[in-house]
Amino acid sequence: MSIPHIWNVIINPNALNCNKTNLWESVKLNLYSKSFVFKEFLSPSQEKCEELVSALVKEGHTNFIVVGGDGTLNEVLNALLKSKTDIDNILLALIPSGTGNDWAKTHNILSDINTLTNMFLNGKVILHDTGKVTVVNNENQIERYFINIAGLAFDAEVIIRVNKSIKLNFGNKFIYLKNLFISLLYNKANECKFILDNTTFEMSVFSIAVGICKYNGGGMMPVPMADPQDGFLDMVIIEPMNLFEILVQLPKLYKGKHIGYKKIHHYRTSNIGIIPKQKMFAEVEGEIVGNGTFEIKSAAQKVNVLIP
């Protein structure tokens, strides 16, 4: 697939990091001189985003730039995959301008004007895996696609606290770390039954990360072995640990060096069932999906994305 010159641009004004508000404007000016054409749309909510993208797809549009962070990218991805369009013709690009840009980190998409301009001129298009989380409880069934990482148990508890916090002008890394340590004080182990492609087992869990890509939490690397093009999910389960173990392993999460510790386990599979004994939540790219029992699949829908 060649890189097109006509794009629809989905901008989430609520996601823009104050330090990066002029990033897209500068890249756009550079590309205007190369005969690029952009039509911009503001999408301040998930509902607005799905409505907007669905309408554009029905009109035959296939090329989408997301200006925002991981959450905005996830909103556009879900709108595209739920639109029943031919995903083979869709091309997705990201201008990482949010407070969370972990998906961009996997692909080395820097918040740099020259890097981003060159990506549209000389980048490459890859076929990227997606995953789907299905949450079932007594009230309903919720489905959510993801292109980065789905987190459960402790991961989701941190996000619940982050979403209740007041955002600061310098981004959410400090907020995330603050709520991470608060969650450590209150988090409890959860006994879960796991059903994978070829095995079933039970384990007491502290944290679960299921990755298409490697990074979340503002630069942590919970799933360092994840390959966004291999068709598989990589799941890392962390068993309950004492405070000393947590303090030792937490810095290693930022370098992906935690794998191999006796209480940290890695599984590569395409289908995961999780049945917790106590209430447990799941999150996808910073959005709480819900609580109940979980099925996580490597989705059949792969999407074309532009990277440097």
What does this 3D model show about the protein?
The structure is a single chain. This protein has 308 residues and is an alpha+beta fold. It folds into two domains: 6-122, Probable inorganic polyphosphate/atp-NAD kinase, domain 1 (Rossmann fold, 3-Layer(aba) Sandwich), CATH 3.40.50.10330; 131-300, Tumour Suppressor Smad4. Helix content is 28%, strand content 33%. The chain has helices spanning 23-32, 46-58, 70-81, 102-106, 113-122, 154-164, 173-186, 243-253; strands at residues 6-11, 37-42, 63-68, 91-96, 124-128, 131-136, 141-146, 149-153, 190-195, 200-205, 207-211, 233-238, 264-269, 271-276, 281-284, 287-291, 293-298, 303-307. The strands form three sheets. It has a six-stranded mixed beta sheet, with helices on both faces. A hairpin with a 4-residue loop joins strand 6 (131-136) and strand 7. Helix 1 (23-32) crosses helix 5 (113-122) and helix 6 crosses helix 7.
Topology:
Layout (H helix, E strand, L loop, with lengths): L5 E6 L11 H10 L4 E6 L3 H13 L4 E6 L1 H12 L9 E6 L5 H5 L6 H10 L1 E5 L2 E6 L4 E6 L2 E5 H11 L8 H14 L3 E6 L4 E6 L1 E5 L21 E6 L4 H11 L10 E6 L1 E6 L4 E4 L2 E5 L1 E6 L4 E5 L1
Parallel strand pairs: 1-2, 1-3, 3-4, 4-18
Antiparallel strand pairs: 5-18, 6-7, 6-17, 8-11, 8-15, 9-10, 9-14, 11-12, 12-13, 14-17, 15-16
Helix pairs in contact: 1-5, 2-3, 6-7
**Rounded radius of gyration (Å):** 19 Å
Largest sheet: 6 strands, mixed
The helical percent reads 25-40%
- Summing up helix and strand content along with how strands pair, one would put the structural category as alpha+beta
Low-confidence stretches: none
Instruction: Estimate the strand proportion.
Output: 25-35%
Helix segment tally: 8
For the record, give the distance between the C-alpha atoms at the N and C termini, rounded to a whole number.
15 Å
Q: Tally of extended strands?
A: 18
* Secondary-structure element pattern, one letter each: EHEHEHEHHEEEEHHEEEEHEEEEEE
Across the major sheet, the strand order is: 2-1-3-4-18-5
**Average pLDDT level:** 89
CATH architecture of the largest domain: Sandwich
CATH fold label of the largest domain: Tumour Suppressor Smad4
CATH class of the largest domain: Mainly Beta
Number of domains in the coordinates?
Answer: 2
Overall shape: it is: globular
